């Protein structure tokens, strides 16, 4: 791994800037992510920009942001390390500036699974 440290960056046209800024990357980087244990004692295993996790009921959780997205038009990727039968799906619902809800459903009922992963992208 390399580290670049600079006080001034030189653009290809010869101009300089003192504040490195790459705004195009902001929209390609995750706003937040969480990996948590969904069985037994529910616990955050790893996270970025997540302040807390609430276990609402079987297979139903609320994830709260440390720093809010700029609007409610964010999207998520949710997965699990378990194979759920009967057409499983996750719901990413009740999007709000403060957080969102995750629900894991196996086609018949909400279920707890061992490990859940959620990644949020926002503009």
3D structure, described in words:
This protein has 123 residues and is mostly beta strands. The chain is built from one helix and ten strands, in the order ββαββββββββ. The chain has a four-stranded antiparallel beta sheet with strand order 4-3-10-7, with no helix packed on it. A hairpin with a 5-residue loop joins strand 8 (89-93) and strand 9 (99-105). The two termini are 29 Å apart.
What is the strand and helix layout of this fold?
Blueprint: E1 9-10, E2 16-17, H1 23-26, E3 32-37, E4 43-48, E5 50-57, E6 60-65, E7 75-80, E8 89-93, E9 99-105, E10 115-121
Antiparallel strand pairs: 1-2, 3-4, 3-10, 5-6, 6-9, 7-10, 8-9
The major β-sheet equals: 4 strands, antiparallel
Q: Could you give the distance between the termini?
A: 29 Å
Helix segment tally: 1
Measured by DSSP, the beta-strand proportion falls in: 35-45%
Order of helices and strands: EEHEEEEEEEE
The whole-number mean of residue pLDDT values reads 80
Helix content, binned percent: under 10%
Looking at the structure, what is the overall shape?
elongated
- Based on secondary structure, the structural category is mainly beta
- State the total count of DSSP E strands: 10
Kindly report the spatial arrangement of strands forming the biggest sheet: 4-3-10-7
Q: Regions with pLDDT < 50 over 5+ consecutive residues?
A: none
Computed over alpha carbons, the radius of gyration is: 19 Å
């Amino acid at each position: 791994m390399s580290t670049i440290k600079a006080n001034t960056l030189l653009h290809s046209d010869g101009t300089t800037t003192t504040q490195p800024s790459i705004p195009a990357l902001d929209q390609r980087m995750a706003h937040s992510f969480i990996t948590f244990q969904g069985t037994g004692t529910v616990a955050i295993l790893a996270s970025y920009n997540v302040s807390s996790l609430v276990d609402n009921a079987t297979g139903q959780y609320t994830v709260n942001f440390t720093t809010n997205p700029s609007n409610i038009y964010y999207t998520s990727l949710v997965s699990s390390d378990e194979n759920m039968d009967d057409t499983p799906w996750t719901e990413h619902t009740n999007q709000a500036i403060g957080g969102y809800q995750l629900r894991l459903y196996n086609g018949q009922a909400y279920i707890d699974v061992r490990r859940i992963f959620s990644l949020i992208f926002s503009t």
